[in-house]
Structure formats: C-alpha cells, structure tokens
C-alpha cells in the first residue's frame, strides 16, 4: 500500500520518478481503509529535501499512511518558499486537538546553541509534551532526538571536539528488538552533528533503553521502555549525496571542514560516494511503522 500525500506536493513527483507508489488524495478517499495518521514536525530549513527523504522511507511499506506536515509558528523558515509552507504545512494551533498514530520530529542545524537559545524552543517543548497524550509513538531524529532526550528525561547534550561527519558502522545491542528485525550484525548510518549524548547518561535512566551504538559515533538508538518514544542520533533517511552537498557547501564558504569519514571511496571527494546505509535506513522506518505504530495503535484514535 502507498503513502497518501497532497496531489501537488513536490515530493510526490520525485517519489513517482523513483517508481515509489504514491496515492493521490482522490484515490485514497475511495478506499475503505483507515490509514495510519502520521504527523511530521519538520524543523530543517530545507524543508522540501527533508520531507522527500522521510516520505521515501515511509512509502515502502504495505500500510496506507496519511501524512500531515507540521512547522513551527514561532519561527518561520527563510529557506522554503512561503507558498509551499502555506499550501502543505499546518501549525500546532490547528492540530492540537487531533490525535495521531505516529509522529516524527526531525533534526535541525542548531546543536551548537543551548536548547533555550533556540527561537522555537518553548513551542517545541509544548509540542513534545502534547505528543505524550496525542501520539501513539514518536520518532525523534538527530537534534530532535537530543531535544527529546533532554526534555523528557533530562539527558544533556555534549559538545564534540570536532564535527562528527560521515558514515559509521553501528552494532545492534538488542537483536530481539523489533526495530532491528532483519538488520545485519553491523549496519551503517550517516551522521552530521557537533554534539552527542553519553551512553553513561542513558544507562542511568531506568525508563530508557539503549538499543544500538557505534564505537566511533557513540549512541545511535534509544527507546523508552514503553516503546512510545524513539530517539535516533543519526540520519538513516539521508540521500546518497546529502553529505557531499554539505561538504562542498562548507568548502565553498571557506570553512574548515573535514572530508566525511567512510563516505567517498579512498576519501576522495571527487569520487561518487558508495551508499551503504539505504537498506538499514528503510528497515528502521518500516519496522517502527509496523511494530510500534500499526501493530499497537488503537483503531479509535480518540482512545490514545
């Protein structure tokens, strides 16, 4: 079954060109199926790129998914056309009375700021508090994961001596976890961040479970014991060229940026990168949707 998106959303054309089954609103209305309702809080400045990456991962599943895009109202992105935001995004005041099967909170390029220095921190806290009673399961990504761990469990983010930038090998710590069903013994995931959370801090919180890590990149996946909240410190949804574009962007700005680790063949940025994380990234999103949303969410959303 496909993902359901607005007919004119730019991501639709991209996904259809990749032979991904995307259903129009008209066709979805004529099916007698309750789709999973998934809310995506997109905090990234390049919203169209991020929404396309995440929708690609949500699309490859036998479930029908109704996606709603959410933006902050306390800070308006300067990198996305206002017509796109008005056409395809909603704000929290419009959906605060609704309930959702699942929610995704993306990363944001603000990790060098203290949480309370982020323009929309107060609004994000309100949304994260609301998610505890209005979403069945919430998936937090990268800075969104750090923000969630701090807000819900008091886990501090820690500055790194240099940017963690590249594709790293990870190990599943709990092979029995449905989130990692079908994973290889080791898997790869992109990372791009200046901060981290410490394993020792996670292990001190009885309500949290560390389920995957990397000997180079540190903590990767954490979940709450009740499986209502997931925190992923990397970017399994990244496109093949995302790190390359970030690297060349910073080079063009004259910034001191290292070549992404384990990404370009022979660390030569003139060579096209080899993708080693696509299948694991797809499995992670599919498993979250299947085992922690679809299999356990109530049919009547009002009972969440």
Automatic annotation (TrEMBL):
It holds the Pfam family HTS. The active site is at 142 (acyl-thioester intermediate), 235 (proton acceptor), 237. It is found in: Cytoplasm. The keyword Membrane does not apply. One of its GO terms (biological process) is L-methionine biosynthetic process from homoserine via O-succinyl-L-homoserine and cystathionine. CDD domains: GATase1_HTS. Pathway: Amino-acid biosynthesis; L-methionine biosynthesis via de novo pathway; O-acetyl-L-homoserine from L-homoserine: step 1/1. The record marks 192 as: Important for substrate specificity. Keywords: Acyltransferase, Amino-acid biosynthesis, Cytoplasm, Methionine biosynthesis, Transferase. The record marks 111 as: Important for acyl-CoA specificity. GO terms for molecular function: homoserine O-acetyltransferase activity; homoserine O-succinyltransferase activity. Transfers an acetyl group from acetyl-CoA to L-homoserine, forming acetyl-L-homoserine. Belongs to the MetA family. This is Homoserine O-acetyltransferase.
